[in-house]
Design a protein that fits this description.
about 230 residues; about 25% strand
Length: about 230
């Protein structure tokens, strides 16, 4: 069964999401306060509404009620973003993802009911940074046979659990793992460092990992990363 979506606000981000949902054949309602912004969507989306998204009644009449997911792409007008989110919550929409332009804006949106807040420009920058430095690994010597390594997860560790990484049984392109395990001591996801985590936690490709292990094991992972990115 298909999910029901709505996109509120047609800036670059909102337009991109709306077009993507339409291409995938999803049911999507699109709302904006300017008819001109619908120009590129008229051939692919039927439910296009010019309205004030802070108006609860207008949203209800457009069918933006009890939907599976609503994406609020109103960034610059903070007041409109907040009032729109409040109206969407009152209308019983299940999941609301909201765009924010600053950490304070994002905190407010979370407090009044956003399920997730995104910072498009920041997230794109983080992904680009991850690509640019994906082959780099920073290694520090702790003792005669112990090293610490900091590297971006990339394809070497990405989409693997902490337990899988620590067991050290990864094999890529015929490279047979050396004996021993490693210990993950820190994970940086976006701007947040985590020093405690569950073994079942999955690492994302863009995450930074800090781990310790014997010389041979750390050297193996550094070599593996260079082959795997």
């Amino acid at each position: 069964m298909k999910k029901s979506y709505a996109v509120i606000g047609l800036g670059k981000f909102g337009s991109y999401i709306a077009k993507g949902l339409a291409v995938e054949g999803e049911n999507v309602i699109v709302c904006d306060n300017t008819k001109e912004n619908f120009r590129d969507l008229q051939d692919s989306i039927e439910d296009l509404y010019v309205l004030d998204s802070t108006d609860k009644l207008a949203l209800e009449e457009a069918g933006v009620i009890e939907l599976d997911m609503v994406i609020v792409s109103i960034g610059e007008n903070v007041e409109a973003s907040i009032l729109t989110l409040m109206a969407l919550r009152e209308l019983g929409n299940k999941t609301i993802i909201a765009k924010a332009i600053s950490p304070i804006h994002g905190q407010i949106l979370l407090k009044i009911g956003a399920d997730r807040v995104i910072y498009p420009e920041k997230e794109v920058a983080n992904r680009l940074l991850a690509e640019l430095i994906s082959n780099k690994a920073e290694v520090s010597i702790i003792s005669e046979d112990l090293k610490m390594c900091k590297m971006i997860a990339g394809n070497t560790f990405g989409k693997r659990t902490i337990e899988e990484i620590q067991k050290g049984n990864l094999e890529v392109k015929g490279q047979i793992p050396t004996e021993g395990e490693i210990k993950v001591v820190g994970i940086k996801s976006e701007d947040n460092w985590k020093l405690s985590f569950n073994l079942n936690d999955e690492v994302c490709n863009e995450d930074f990992l800090v781990f310790v292990g014997n010389n041979a094991k750390i050297d193996f992972y550094v070599k593996l990363k260079s082959l795997n990115n």
